[in-house]
Amino acid sequence: MSRADEAARRVELAKGQERAESAKAQVLIDRFVADAKAAGIQPTPLRAVLFSGHSVKTDKIGWYLRKNESLAIGDDGSYYVLTVPGGLKERLRGVKLTPSPPPLIVGKGGRDGETGDLAQFLQWRLDAG
Question: How far is CA 56 from CA 48, 79, 100, 102, in A?
């Protein structure tokens, strides 16, 4: 097996692991959405932040996971990263959010206090009401 073949195999294995992790995370998210709705915790209109730092409206509603409102769960069970590219057009019209594959570890590689288990972030949100 050549080095290129080995590298391609490692990439494919990593992608498979990421897909499996996202599937497990989606189960947690689906349970959170059901629990939030059952508890009467209403979703709110989500806002995103452009790379320039401007806050913009989005086309989604949901629940923020972090105090800095950089991550959210949509009312449809999608996982959203709320830091997005854009310019003047997006500032005026808002942005259409695209779901991201959910991780089991939020903020992997980030600073202390910004990382943790997805289950913990979801529980904090439920506890906050």
Answer: 5, 18, 19, 22
Say whether pLDDT at 110 is over 70.
Answer: no
Instruction: Look at the chain and report how many structural domains it folds into.
Output: 1
User: What pLDDT does residue 112 have?
Assistant: 55
Mean pLDDT (whole number) for 77-101: 93
SS3 for 90-109 is HHHHCECCCCECCCCEECCC
Locus of tokens 């294995």: 13
Q: How many CB atoms lie within 10 A of CB 129?
A: 9
Range of the domain at 78: 3-128
Mean pLDDT of the chain: 90
Please tell me the number of Cα atoms within 13 Å of 45 on its side-chain side.
Answer: 9
Distance from C-alpha of 28 to C-alpha of 6, rounded to nearest angstrom = 34
- Contact between 106 and 115 (Cβ < 8 Å): yes
**pLDDT band per the 50, 70, 90 thresholds, residue 80:** very high
Q: Token digits for 59?
A: 């086309």
